[in-house]
# Entry
Amino acid sequence: MRWTKSALKARISDIIGNRQLIIATNREPYIHIYKEGKVEYMRPVGGAVTALDPVMRVCNGTWVAHGSGAADKEVVNKKDEIRVPPEDPQYTLKRIWLTKEEENGYYYGYSNKGLWPLCHMAYTRPEFEEIDWAYYKIVNQKFADTILNLAKHKKTFVWIHDYHLTLLGKMLKEKNKKILTANFFHIPWPNPEAFRICPQRKEILEGLLANDLLGFHIRYHCANFMETVKLDLEARIDNEKTAVVYGGHETLIRAFPISVDFDEISKIAESGETKKTVRHIKEQFSISPETFVMIGLDRIDYTKGIIEKIQAVDRFFEKFPEYKEKVVFIQKGGLSRIHIGAYKDLNEEINNLVENVNWKHSTKKWFPVIFVRKHMARKEIVALHKMANACLVSPVHDGMNLVCKEYVAAKNDLDGTLILSQFTGAARELEGAIFVNPYDREGFADAIKEAVILPKEERMRRMKNLRKTVKENNIYKWAGTFLEELKKI
Ligand code: GDG
# Structure
């Protein structure tokens, strides 16, 4: 059986039974903002919400998240809830309000100055401030109190997501043993030596091991986690079952490679509207039909290898100047975590680099890098993928990476090449990509050349393989297999 939206819909009540489903994430799937005095909503940029929204549309249930939009309070009911998607309501979003201090300490501080660099090992030094940790605990407790209230009278399954909420499982179980909980970690789990520097590692591990199920993208992260537990706690590791028993409680550890809604993206890519958007984007950037278009699409984050990518494009034009005016690179970058110094600096660095590279290679009628900052709707993103002859995905470390899978899903015409960092979780699945080490500028520049000259049949053969993989291993398979694992508990 291939997992599809309707297959998950058909199986969901059998999987969940009479339990209500609650999912908990830091980021909410829809943000309400003020625009020219009116309330509007937008979709935030980020992998976890992109992946979970289609799943929740099928599963119904309640999504608990931080209400971070300026107009969020204006649209919720007395219980701080709103049905979403706003244009076609299918599940409930329950918003949690955080003070500026809480957001600063828990989100910008402990989660993103501490755990994010710790788990990615991208040579950005993690910072663990006591005050941030205090807020991290306060906010995890806020999520727990809200969810315990929702779970008072119903059998409940709580699906927790990510490194922002590592203590939540334990906080829930301490008050209500009947709740079933799982945490899916969207980022890598590092090796035990790297994790060892975290001063709060014992509390974090104990928080995670209170869950009944713990999911990572790939087996390597599961193995790292089990090794970490072995080093830091007196727990029993059951290798046969891939489980950890700690304090008499068993947690299953499993790999579930996350993915995208292949069918939906393919459908959007095929639509007449997308064709029109492609024409519009090409006009806007004065791209001729003969130009070889390469794209990049990332949240602006130091783990995504944006600097390394632009440097490789620079090297490509240095080494192969005959491609000037024939090849162009469009990088779309969504601003992210801008209150953190490292992100502000990265943004500056990208601006300077783009300016230098463009100045260095530009001719009278062409420059090599188009950096797009304006917010793009999903339709425009699909159009960008559709028009691209190559997509450059170059993280220095990434749990999975959805952009490469979105690209593959949008290439119905098979005419495109994926250049993919070997340090993404996706690299383990996506046979058919041209693999690069983003730290190896020379090799990366050569890979770009390889993509530009790849014969059409070979290009199509590779894309066909890639599409087969992503079509099969789509987001509904991820959700379905994760939830089915729960039935075994
Ligand atoms: C975490 C893990 C894991 C990106 N830039 C823009 C934009 N996007 C959209 C993409 C994609 C999503 O955001 C990014 O997903 P990724 O998977 O690449 O990255 P993270 O946000 O770091 O996600 C990652 C993921 O969780 C899921 O588990 O794969 O490893 O780090 O959907 O299309 N969207 C818009 N403008 C942008 O500039 N509109």
The mean pLDDT is 96. Residues 262-472 form a domain with the Rossmann fold fold (CATH 3.40.50.2000). The radius of gyration is 23 Å.
